[in-house]
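worker-3 :: picked Precorrin-6A synthase (Deacetylating)
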Amino acid sequence: MTRRIHVIGIGAGDPDQVTAQAVTALNDTQVFFAMDKGDAKDDLVALRRHICERFIREPGYRFVELPDPPRDRAASDGPDYRRAVADWHAARARVWADAITSELSDGATGAFLAWGDPSLYDSTLRILDTVANHVDIDYDVIPGVTAVQTLTARHRIPLNDVGEPVLITTGRQLRDHGLAGSAVVMLDADCSFLSCPPDTRIWWGAYLGTPDELLMSGTVGEVGSRIAAVRADARARHGWIMDTYLLRSAPGGG
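worker-3 :: tokens ->
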């Protein structure tokens, strides 16, 4: 029988963001798969466990923690970067396929809990597509509240200017191509906003939806250096950081 997999978006960090649809899927799951990313990120697995404890009505489910394959981070640009990511995804797919085969019986249901929404800068769906080439699985996707939604809610701002588009991009792309209009920036380890003109508006947030949440806003000239310092301190204290920010060009800029 086909093994079933739920990919469940669990929000940006606040358990109250878990949707009713996600709760139904949680209660339909026997085995939860989670990546073990080392001691520094143990609290990420702990939050997943807390969500299950809070919303699952009947005990009997279990967690299977999977070793995360090493990733080559030396390549940061162009074909080498894409090749490194592809190799990492392929290694993850092998780990997942082995775990699903050995830990999930035929006809049973497993789940991966994805931060935010599984569609937004998350590799789960691409990896499961690869797994499905080798293991008989059927999977569905439960959408979740994104870090972008949480960021704009915390700062009490609309995502877009009136009638204007918004780009969702990465720090590397921002450095390479600059800013025009409004952009949400994710996966930025290098504070790429510092390369923007000083009158660029920024709304920044880290650990969104958690007790460790950090928020800051202003222009890059006013708060850019302070954000970079706060970010570095928080990453050193926690051993990891998840942050995102919205940029908006000054009128007439770009």
